[in-house]
Amino acid sequence: MPPNSRAGAAPFPAELAGAMPGLPDPADLYMALDLGTNSCRMLIAQPKGSQFHVVDSFSKSVQLGQGLEASGFLSRQAMRRTLNALKVCRAKLDRHGVKRMRLVATEACRRAKNGKSFLKTVARETGFELEVIAPDEEARLAVISCAPLVSPKTEQLLVVDIGGGSTELVWIDLSRVQKIERPRAIMRLKTGFTPDPSSPFPTAHVVDWISVPLGVSTLRDQFVDVDNDAARFALMSCCFEECLAEFSPYEAEQTREGFQIIGTSGTVTTVAASHLGLVRYDRTKVDGLRMTSDQIDKVINKYLDLGPQGRRADPRIGNGRHALIMSGAAILQALLRIWPTDRLTVADRGLREGLLYAQMSADGVLEDGVY
């Protein structure tokens, strides 16, 4: 399946940005649910200034896309696991009395031949009406979730969201935006990748974006028949790099000065936790951490030295991620081979946060302050 790429993407329709009829109460709770190829994630939050305060959360590895690459269908076991997780989310929603929400599904439900049928089952058994969002919207939501992590020194920004079934890359030129306005300019991309020429605010220029239909699950499944661990890793990394050939910044040489990559995914946060030596994961130490290409390479080489059994036993990787970490690391290594950087920023945030920002901003309950 070829990557999706289109720099001139249309703005979000108001209803897709999360706007709801009626005057919102600033005390209202909001819910965002992201059903991906590998995980089911949910956040319930309340607006707080230009950010939000998390009231409740849920994250579960459901492996919805397990076997999808080979069969084209969601398996019964995967759908059962996912339904059980969604029922937990439903209980939390009912407990908190949340009325304002956005519930989305991504690559697995986009690709599966029985994806629509499964979503009807979800609606029947949980009451959740999940919408399957397009890759360009998935990319935009990932970008705006990372706005608070954009450095005022950044002139060229690459946001990378490594998912279970796909990977989104968005390249943004901030060189014409005043330094103090750069995080806010990223947040304003919620209205679309094509800036509004009548807007009085500074705008970020999206040079190009791409959605590669390879994530940690789908890339691993393509090379599951390769026995040698190091050879499989090398093949995965080269395969992913080949998919970037049509991404316009692929041939562009970048200086490290003024260039920032923000990586949002379980792969990036796991690599960061390994770099810090965290046996127990601590989001406060990981989110916003900056790493160099050399530091990331050191962690990945350690993973290779450990081998499959060593990675399984390593508490910094964890039982839930050891089978997927090398496919994610192969994607990360390919990116750093093309664009080496001393400023890769680790983001423990993603689609859920983007959904919340978009809903709250559309409802007018977020202040336009410093992110």
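The above is record 1. Record 2 follows with the same two-line structure.
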Amino acid sequence: MDNNYLIAIGKRLSQIRKSQKMTQEVLSEKLNISAKHVSHVERGISSYSLKNLIDFCEIFNCSLDYILLGKPNQNVLNKLPSEIIELLYTGSAKELEQLNRYLQFYIELSKKQD
């Protein structure tokens, strides 16, 4: 695999982990791998096995499409600005709550216009 892909994947993995305030050590325990391997993956030096990628997605409730390709595979989400998609996958609980409030406000406004 091209090193540029590994670096991009590692960056997304790191962003997701950090957004949930999880350390590399805690993640390594959850994936049953060394913290050094987590660090190498996040820096694009190596990659996770398919099983570890799937486990990562389950731990963080995220999409494998986002990790591997940097975008969701769903057509509707592809129409959103990339900043919103990134926020959906890497945003803190507070940021996601704020985004949800904005969307609820938008829904209320659109109902009133109908």
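The two ends are 51 Å apart (CA to CA).
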